[in-house]
Amino acid sequence: MTDTPEKPRSHGRLRITPSLTPRALMEGPPDLARAWRARVLTLFPEAFPGTLGLSLTGKALDLGLWALDVIGLRDFGEGRHRTVDDTPAGGGAGMVLRADVLDRALQAARPGTPADRRLWPLVYLSPRGRPFDQATARAWAAGAGVTLLCGRFEGVDQRVLDHWEIEEVSLGDFVLTGGEIAAQAMLDATVRLIPGVLGNAASTEEESFAQGLLEHPQYTRPAVWQGRPIPEVLTSGNHAAIARWRHDQALALTRARRPDLWARLQARIPPET
Ligand SMILES: C[S@@+](CC[C@H](N)C(=O)[O-])C[C@H]1O[C@@H](n2cnc3c(N)ncnc32)[C@H](O)[C@@H]1O
Fold first, then answer.
1. Does residue 173 carry a pLDDT above 50?
2. Does ligand 1 lie within 6 Å of residue 114's CB atom?
């Protein structure tokens, strides 16, 4: 183990661009310097790109439509053992990630990020945070990038959140072991909204939450399965009738399953707000 922190590991086109000189974070081929960028701080860098390296998000990463820098928290740890955590002040179970260690990692993650947090949010994945939703994914995708701090153990020292004015965002009302799965879920939802990542852009306009509605049911071949036929209207070729049927189904599903979304629709509150 060396005394100097390792360079953040970058994924995507950088991983197939041979270079003897370590590249600074926002340098690199011009297309990658402009690409939407995710910067993830984690105790487990090997967890990335994980599922983000597969399928459409993985292909987009390889094509340089977005870029991923992974910063290992252990590199900024204290002493010979690179200690990153300590016992909670006031007692209690578990360990807490240290403010001074996280501060060093956050300093390393800062180069090239705009000061305007609307363009590049700084986020701690946390069950206490504001719930992540499609509007958040859309807002993040419209910016230049995002920095995500993954917690572990009992979480992070509150002072680093206050000092850096870090926004807390939650994947849902449950407790994960660490922030890595939440980071990948949020990045997946965000990256697929970056222009060019999905082959068919129309698919994001019709899917769940786009219009404040859940999506209508989908069917494909075979025409009859286990005695269940595809609804007749879908094979009628009547596009107006199909659109009407899908909209009615979306309304019925939203009303039955999501009274919160339904109330917003009734009150004509746009899904973005
Ligand atoms: C075991 S959890 C800590 C939970 C914390 N002691 C609490 O009760 O709020 C460890 C880490 O997992 C991540 N995490 C857990 N649940 C999450 C959620 N629902 N959304 C986002 N991140 C979560 C956070 O980064 C957190 O620091």
1. yes
2. no
Instruction: Give yes or no for residue 187 CB within 6 A of ligand 1.
Output: no
What confidence category does residue 270 fall into, taking pLDDT thresholds of 50, 70 and 90? confident
pLDDT for 20: 37
Average pLDDT value for residue range 84-88: 98
Is 123 touching ligand 1 by the criterion CB < 6 Å?
Answer: no
Residue 94 Cα, ligand 1 centroid: separation in angstroms?
13
Q: Are 71 and 105 in contact (CB under 8 A)?
A: yes
| CA 148 to ligand 1 centroid distance, Å | 13
- Residue bearing the CA closest to ligand 1, atom 17: 127
Residue intervals in the chain for CATH 3.40.1280.10: 9-191
For ligand 1, is residue 141 a contact (CB within 6 Å)? no
Q: What is the pTM of this model?
A: 0.91
Residue 2 pLDDT > 70:
no
CATH node for 207-266: 1.10.1270.20
Q: State the DSSP H helix or E strand holding residue 86, giving kind and residue range, or none if neither.
A: strand 85-86
Q: Hey, CA dihedral for 106, 109, 110, 115, is it positive or negative?
A: negative
> Peptide bond preceding 271: is omega within 30 degrees of 0, i.e. cis?
no
Neighbours of 149 (CB within 10 A): 28
Q: Which CATH class is domain 9-191?
A: alpha beta
